[in-house]
Predict the 3D structure of the following.
Amino acid sequence: MIKKLSAFLVILSMVVFSSDIFLSPPAMAANSMDVVINEIAWAGSTDNSLDEWIELYNNTTSVIDLTNWTIEDDSGAQTYALTGIVPARGYFLLESRESATSIAADQVRVLSLSNNGDSLVLKDSGSNVIDTVNSGSTAWFTGSATTHATMERLSTNVSGDLQTNWQSSSGGGTATSSSGGSILGTPKASNSGIIPEPQILLTADNTEVSPGEQIIFSVTVTDAIDLSNYGFDMTYDASKLQYIESTEKAFLNESGTVTTSFQSGLENGDEGVVVVGNARTITPLTGVSGDGELFTVTFEVVDGASAVSSSVTIASSSFLSSPTGNISVTSWPSSTFAITETSTVTTVSNLQANPGTDRYSIALAWDAVSGTEISYKVYRRNPHDTFDLLGTTALLNFLDNDSVANGGNIIPNFDYEYRVTTYNGIEESVPALVTGTDIRGLKGDNTRSDRVDGHDLENIAKSWTVDDSQTNFPVLADTSFDGTISGNDLIDLAVTWAKTYP
């Protein structure tokens, strides 16, 4: 008998063990704010103060099982165990009693919400905090013990601890309370104060541009709530556009009163994708709400680009976020523009740029364009990727040296980009492009002494961090040609330190 009992126990343990194998795996932890506390009837209704209820909202596109989830009231003074599912982008209604509203409850559990204010913490089955409301357990942010209006969330993507993300409901639904009275709330329906989802707008300062012209795209946001960070991938046709620069605008840094870190550049250094990001760098981290301009991106239409339509697109990999997580954005825009060649003036041909007879000069030459009253305009790209007019001439050549306004100050071994257009007194032609370099000299020799030494270092030190927006900017010390006296210029000096020429 003992042997039979032992055998039975062995078999039973095998069955139990085997059944464990086939049990469903533990639920995966949810992400913060996958589900949020969306509306709270903390004052009950005009019919009965016991008509309390809490509405949850599922921010995701998947059904979420709330089994073993909990809502902790005032740090666990009361804990409401949850069961059931909340549909994708749908609601879950927890009522203190089934008659609390005329809407069928997803779960009934006696609630004990203080009219003086509670803190509520939503946790998943692994006790991970998913959402919090009024964690300081102060008075309720909104709602009313007089009118019995509920406290409703404005945005399901913004923290429930942010007082500005809540308002008192104005009702508008068809649900009634325990004795048929109207409810100033919207159980299992869109909140009365729900705000529009943030929208991203992409606009160009010009919808028709010619080769050589610049076009600036502005990125703005509307209906933002608690925006603290963003990241944008902007795609474009590299055969039509060349990236010039990105510039931060005032919205995120609130006109310079808040510190931010703005970054931009080409993906892997290649034309085609501009990567732009920004973040508020303040403690404690807070966001900004409303409408405003985030940044601009400047492009230049590539020389020789055909007269077609093209576009710049904000990719779906872009994002907005608040201090508590990503902010939902449904669509990302494109902006289309036309490339036109309206000029009837012939472009110069055979444009060349070679070192001039004297050092620190570059000589340009080109073939004549037929016509009457023809002249030629010569431009040079500056450190800010725009072109300065060096001069207008009727000759077929031009010498860029120190006597030229906006030109000269040639840095040895630096490639200067020139453009020459034909001008008939009314309009200019599409520009011809050429690059010129003078290799005679030392790049770090900003005193032009034919020796890189302490005097050159002194020039950099005296103007450290000075930029070319200031008068008397030491152009020759800016050997990196970026418009600022910085570490790049020190590197140029270090490479040629103690060398002489020739």
About this structure: Confidence is low (pLDDT under 50) at residues 1-27. The chain is about 10% helix and 35% strand. The longest helix spans residues 2-21. The helical segments are 2-21, 250-253, 454-462, 487-495.
